[in-house]
């Protein structure tokens, strides 16, 4: 492994030398035909919504600096938008995609073209639907390679392989979501997990629906792992093989050697895998990490694919199975989440901003909403499940997108009263508060935090015990952020600030806030517009688990949000 680390150091140096080269950027075009598709899985015939009749949808391959034009033709019966998860959208906030935030939906029978340039980013991102639960089947990889003449800051792999981890329901996912919202109960669990759209041979009728990867002994492969699952964090492992993490969320990291990876919904992890074992067959497998300390039903199944060495002896083709972490292995999850650091000086690396303009302490967690009169709902105490941040349960507008309201100065679409600290202080992670009625009911509001252009924002994201403690994957649109520190219990500014890494913290767009704990993040609001921050569990987002940042325009034309595209969908 020391040899690999030395090779990575040499590759990094060559990358720095190559930065002086120039290359012209390209316009890359794709057309997404989105429509319903009948598929057979798990002994069922199901109707899904898919892009170009494939699951996952098409991979998009571009180079840093390229401009992407994606023509989306909505032939499905549902409203639709596409979000380009992790793309910074520098001065192109109209293309970000979350419905009613930056645009109104593309109606059935309509079309829209997303146009944006991807600059100052390299690595693995992805795209997905951002209306209701459609992203269960409407998703794909977005791979950004270095410009021509530039190199990775690690040895060039002999192959690159997207690994998209997904979640499958036999039922129509829109029906599953609507039933949960109507009853106020938790939605039905998924029926399977998938690797590149295939559930694997542990599920019924799936012996031939198993993903297979062929490798050559001695060669190194770059696996681009994406968690596209709706509601579950996933451990991923390959039998008898180590992996070296070299990037997360399209930001390079110091090489980190591990035999298991954890990805929350929304996150990506790039790993180098060397096929250095005896020729044979080896399972790659993924199963959930469930942090909830109470007995909540969960899909505790395992998806697996097969990695097969070329020219493997027939006698060795029975694959070896990896030993995956326990379902509730928080110790392993925290080790994997907290030990990564960024690769200082790598392409597009950004140092930690030191002067903070906005200090925010934000509680995150579940709650309740009153059931309609003369009804009994399916949540705790006969009420409806809800969610909130700082006791504000986010409600999406329906008459106009928030970004249009910002640009045209339209009142009444959102308010700028999202609090920078919890309105009520309590012992946030004490489970005796899990059913405290005085804390469980948060008002429904479209409230945002307004910040000045180029302001540095520091957020302490604090889990709460309301209903239950849980690890919450939080995703911020429009920005990457530095993860300064993570810990358990209530954040203590006197002692926990001493733990902040201000030198080389990992840089992400999605962070799993530790169960019963906190995460400290920091970013510079250098992109004017409206940017939502939300829990990336689709079971929670419709319940109000979100807020948004309204970033004011800067002092020049180059730092002012341009007008919306003429073909932007209308509400």
TrEMBL record:
Any Gene Ontology CC annotation: apoplast
Location of this chain's protein in the cell: Secreted, Extracellular space, Apoplast
Keywords, comma-separated and alphabetical: Apoplast, Copper, Glycoprotein, Lignin degradation, Metal-binding, Oxidoreductase, Repeat, Secreted, Signal
Signal peptide: 1-25
Function: Lignin degradation and detoxification of lignin-derived products.
InterPro entries: Cu-oxidase-like_N (IPR011707), Cu-oxidase_2nd (IPR001117), Cu-oxidase_C (IPR011706), Cu-oxidase_fam (IPR045087), Cupredoxin (IPR008972), CuRO_1_LCC (IPR034288), CuRO_2_LCC (IPR034285), CuRO_3_LCC (IPR034289)
PANTHER family per record: LACCASE-7, MULTI-COPPER OXIDASE
Family to which the UniProt record says this protein belongs: Belongs to the multicopper oxidase family.
Catalytic activity, EC: 1.10.3.2
Native source species: Punica granatum (Pomegranate)
An individual GO BP term: lignin catabolic process
GO molecular-function terms, A-Z: copper ion binding; hydroquinone:oxygen oxidoreductase activity
Cofactor(s) named in the record: Cu cation
Catalytic activity: 4 hydroquinone + O2 = 4 benzosemiquinone + 2 H2O
Major subcellular location class: secreted
Name recorded for this polypeptide: Laccase
Pfam families, sorted: Cu-oxidase, Cu-oxidase_2, Cu-oxidase_3
Residues in Plastocyanin-like domain copies: 34-148, 160-312, 417-554
Cofactor notes: Binds 4 Cu cations per monomer.
Gene: LOC116207137
């Amino acid at each position: 492994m020391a040899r690999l680390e030395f090779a990575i150091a040499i590759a990094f140096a060559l990358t720095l030398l190559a930065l002086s080269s120039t290359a012209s950027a390209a316009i890359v075009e794709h057309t997404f035909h989105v429509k319903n598709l009948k598929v057979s899985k798990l002994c069922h015939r199901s109707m899904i919504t898919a892009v170009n009749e494939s699951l996952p949808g098409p991979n998009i391959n571009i180079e840093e600096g390229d401009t992407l034009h994606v023509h989306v033709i909505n032939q499905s019966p549902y409203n639709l938008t596409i979000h380009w998860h992790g793309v910074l959208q520098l001065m192109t906030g109209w293309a970000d995609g979350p419905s009613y935030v930056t645009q109104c939906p593309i109606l059935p029978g309509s079309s829209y073209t997303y146009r944006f340039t991807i600059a100052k980013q390299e690595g693995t991102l992805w795209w997905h639907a951002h209306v209701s639960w459609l992203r269960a089947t409407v998703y794909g990889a977005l791979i950004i390679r270095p410009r021509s003449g530039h190199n990775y800051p690690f040895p060039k792999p002999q192959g690159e392989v997207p690994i998209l981890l997904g979640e499958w329901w036999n039922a129509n996912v829109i029906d599953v979501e609507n039933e949960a919202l109507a009853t106020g109960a938790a939605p039905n669990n998924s029926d399977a997990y998938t690797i590149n759209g295939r559930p694997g041979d542990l599920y019924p009728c799936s012996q031939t629906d198993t993903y297979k990867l062929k490798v050559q002994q001695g060669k190194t492969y770059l696996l681009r792992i994406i968690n596209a699952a709706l509601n579950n964090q996933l451990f991923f492992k390959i039998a008898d093989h180590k992996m070296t993490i070299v990037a997360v969320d399209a930001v390079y990291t110091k090489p980190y050697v591990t035999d298991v990876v954890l990805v929350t919904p929304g996150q990506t992890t790039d790993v180098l895998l060397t096929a250095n074992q005896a020729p044979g067959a080896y399972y790659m497998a993924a199963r959930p990490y469930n942090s909830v300390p109470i007995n909540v039903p969960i899909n505790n199944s395992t998806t697996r694919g097969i990695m097969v060495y070329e020219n493997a002896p027939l006698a060795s083709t029975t694959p070896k199975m990896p030993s995956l972490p326990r379902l509730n292995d928080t110790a392993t999850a925290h080790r994997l989440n907290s030990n990564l650091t960024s690769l200082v000086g790598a392409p597009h690396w950004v140092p930690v901003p030191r002067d903070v303009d906005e200090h925010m302490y934000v509680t995150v967690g579940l709650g309740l909403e009153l059931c309609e009169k003369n009804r009994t709902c399916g949540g705790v105490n006969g009420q409806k499940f809800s969610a909130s941040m700082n006791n504000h349960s986010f409600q999406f507008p329906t008459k106009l997108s928030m970004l249009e309201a910002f640009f045209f100065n339209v009142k009444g679409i959102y308010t700028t009263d999202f609090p920078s600290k919890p309105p009520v202080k309590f012992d946030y992670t004490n489970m005796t508060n899990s059913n405290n009625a005085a804390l469980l009911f948060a008002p429904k509001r479209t409230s945002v935090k307004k910040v000045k252009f180029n302001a540095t924002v520091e957020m302490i994201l604090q889990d709460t015990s309301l209903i239950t403690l849980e690890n919450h994957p939080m995703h911020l649109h429009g920005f990457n952020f530095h993860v300064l520190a993570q810990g358990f219990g209530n954040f203590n500014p006197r002692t926990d600030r001493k733990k902040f890494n201000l030198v080389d913290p990992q840089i992400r767009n999605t962070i799993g806030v530790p169960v019963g704990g906190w995460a400290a993040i920091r970013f510079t609001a250098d992109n004017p517009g409206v940017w939502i921050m939300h829990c990336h569990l689709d079971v929670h987002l419709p319940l109000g688990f979100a807020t948004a940042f309204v970033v004011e325009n800067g002092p020049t034309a180059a730092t002012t949000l341009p007008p919306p595209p003429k073909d932007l969908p209308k509400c």
